[in-house]
Design a protein that fits this description.
Number of helices: 10
Oligomer: single chain
Radius of gyration: 20 Å
Number of domains: 1
Structural class: mainly alpha
Order of helices and strands: HHHHHHHHHH
Strand content: under 5%
Helix content: over 70%
Shape: globular
Number of strands: 0
Largest sheet: none
């Protein structure tokens, strides 16, 4: 009869396994939160469906409303998931001591943030798939071809990085109630006048010069250019890279776990 070694072997699971488990937990928490689901998917979807009549309400310029709105709605989905939803959830996790307790787990603190990021990426993949499918059903006809979609992928990653870092920046430095107010206020302001849904050329010159330097304007216009001509200009890419780097550095220096 073979002797089995049943002695305990304490130790942490591999980092990859812990990271996957944490990302899965974040996804389950998001799925149970109706408010966050509404912000991340329902609102962009409603705007997209209503976009077929938006030409009579908002001046979108030349072209069919769906061709102008579809890229903007994809940009809005990134803003919803990687900024507003992430900031609010993280802010209240700080308030209730969840982050403090998770920080004492074997998973390193960078892994906690990475797990949140992975969950956001999964949500955005679902968002893009659903919104793109609905847009095509409504008659969206992007002219950028494969190159346009590749550039769109790059812009979506940069936008996720920039908005995600900004979301963690306010969640890690403000009280939960202040984070809730700021995240929702920024969401509404950028939705209404941040260059996401309405092309930048429809704004006055002064406002356009400012919006071109914001991540919302850069992402929205960059996606429109990519889907229309196959490639965005240099400015949107550069703006998103700079915002990503600066916001990530600021978050690393100021984020408080409790």
């Amino acid at each position: 009869m073979t002797n089995l070694d049943l002695s305990p072997r304490p130790g942490a699971a591999p980092t990859g396994a812990m990271l996957r488990a944490h990302a899965s937990m974040e996804l389950r928490l998001l799925a149970r939160n109706g408010e966050q689901l509404g912000i991340t998917l329902v609102v962009p979807l409603l705007l997209l469906v209503a976009g077929t009549k938006a030409g009579s309400i908002v001046d979108l310029g030349e072209g069919r409303p769906i061709d102008v709105l579809a890229p903007g709605v994809l940009a809005l989905a990134v803003l919803s998931a990687s900024f507003t939803s992430l900031a609010i959830a993280t802010g209240f996790e700080r308030r209730y001591g969840v982050l403090k307790r998770l920080g004492a787990s074997p998973l390193p603190r960078w892994g906690l943030l990475a797990g949140k990021t992975l969950a956001v990426v999964v949500v955005e993949v679902v968002q893009v798939a659903v919104l793109a499918a609905v847009a095509f059903a409504l008659g969206w006809q992007p002219d950028g071809g494969v190159t346009g979609w590749l550039w769109a992928g790059v812009l979506l990653v940069l936008g996720t990085t920039a908005f995600g870092a900004l979301g963690l920046l306010i969640a890690g430095s403000l009280r939960a109630e202040a984070t809730l107010a700021v995240a929702n206020l920024v969401y509404v302001l950028l939705l209404v006048g941040g260059g996401i849904l309405v092309p930048l050329e429809r704004y006055p010159d002064g406002a356009r010069a400012v919006l071109e330097l914001l991540p919302s304007g850069a992402l929205g216009q960059g996606l429109r250019d990519a889907f229309a001509s196959g490639a965005p200009g240099l400015l949107p890419v550069l703006v998103l890279v700079i915002w990503s780097a600066v916001a990530a550095a600021a978050t690393a220096r100021t984020f408080r776990w409790e």
